[in-house]
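Quarterly update from the structural biology core.
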Amino acid sequence: MPRITVSALSHPGLVRDHNEDSLVVGPWTLCGTMTEKAQTLEFPLGSPLVVAVADGIGGQPAGEVASGLVVRLLASLGPTLDSEQAVRDALHACNHAVYAAADRDRELATMGTTVAGVVVLAKELLVFNVGDSRVLDVRPNGPGEGGGTSLHQVSVDDSPPLAPGRRTTSVITQALGGAPRFSRIAPHVSTAPLTTGERYLVCTDGLTDPVPGDRLDDLLRTHDDGRAVFELWKSAIEAGGPDNITLALVDLLQ
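Predicted structure, tokenized:
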């Protein structure tokens, strides 16, 4: 019977004093906390399954409040996310919810968060993001490609063009919340065919900024499930752990 496994981990890293990342896997959420061991969950293929990370905007208040609010709302809306339009509507609702919460409490003013994730449906996969958290497709290579896997980014970074010689930037061009006054968003949402054997890595930039893509690719070629998630986290820590690190590895199994 086709099934989905999701292995996930969230950690503050070595520099930040607390974790502003949050995570949703179906009805399960993890908000502003720490796990050093990957948690692995299994689901039957069929009903919509949302897997997403949210990264509270650093340097502004209450990033963990914004990211937690978003993943809890996505968890509650998860069973209804059966189309691109449903996902767009949910992200607009998240944006309104972040601004509404900030309006009710002056201490939360300008809080905001990125979000990125997938919704696994019975026959296709919806990919979405706002901001610079990422969804990466871990795709098996064909017979003529030497076996193994290849890593492809399928989300769209909301960041300005990189300066020459720069691999990363902390600047984002849109987020959920994050401004003194309400600002609309233009979510990135796309549909991909569901292919058994593919894996999707959903992660915050605490993983992708310090760890180059070829290193991520090597680790995902070598490891599966919870071990892969642990090794990815360990690689970010060995690179200095400069930011919160949250990731989920989604496996589509026969």
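The chain has five helices and 13 strands.
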